[in-house]
Amino acid sequence: MKKKTMLLGAMSLAAVTFLSACSTGSENQGSNDISDSSIVEDGSSMSSMEDMSGMAHDDSGDIPAGLQEANNPTYQVGDTVTITEGHMEGMEGAEAKIIGAFDTIAYEISYDPTDGGPREENHKWVIQEEISNVGEEVLEPGAEVTVEANHMAGMEGAIAVIEAAEETTVYMIDYQPTTGGETVKNHKWVTDSELSAE
For the chain, what is the domain count? Predict the structure, then answer.
């Protein structure tokens, strides 16, 4: 009887040790997987990248088809200007360089991002050439449109409501945020009224 009890105790202890080792191993494995998947090539964590996903602007410099260069822009390509109105943190007061100037219709829009992010209210700007199936007429406030621009995550393909329209020159700019960090390249778009000469 004593032998059976000792054998049973030894087997129980071995089983607990084995299960404990398996459990620890799988937990560690899981945390390694999470850790590995949360690191991107530049060493940033995925969570911090996701926190900034809404702010990740398209910096390709691609120009929409049909967009015409401005005939007589207030600011020329290569000019250095100051941004007087900020669409995002670190923009207002920043020094910027004009990369391109184009005559078009700029729209302020509100939309629900296609990636499930929070609704964007009064986003400035998308332009006539970045809206699906639209002619040359100025769209009225309240009109529903499909956005083709991909300035921000979840913008392309979103259904938007026009809040305001402005026939103007829009500029593509490079600027150094006043909050520090890397230079923002090919930001689309700012208007004449949002810039001042240095």
Answer: 1
Residue 56 or residue 133, greater confidence: 133
**51 within a domain of the structure (yes/no):** no
Give the structural domain span for 129: 64-197
- CATH at 150: 2.30.30.1210
Would residue 116 count as lying in a domain?
A: yes
* pTM score, whole prediction: 0.71
* Three-state secondary structure string covering the chain: CHHHHHHHHHHHHHHHHHHHHHHHHHHHHHHHHHHHHCECCCCCEHHHHHHCHHHCCCCCCCCCCCCEECCCCCCCCCCEEEECCCCCCCCCCCEEEEEEEEEEEEEEEEECCCCCCCCEEEEEEEEHHHECCCCCCCCCCCCEEEECCCCCCCCCCCEEEEEEEEEEEEEEEEECCCCCCCCEEEEEEEEHHHEEEC
Chain segment 47-56, per-residue pLDDT in tens? 222 333 344 5
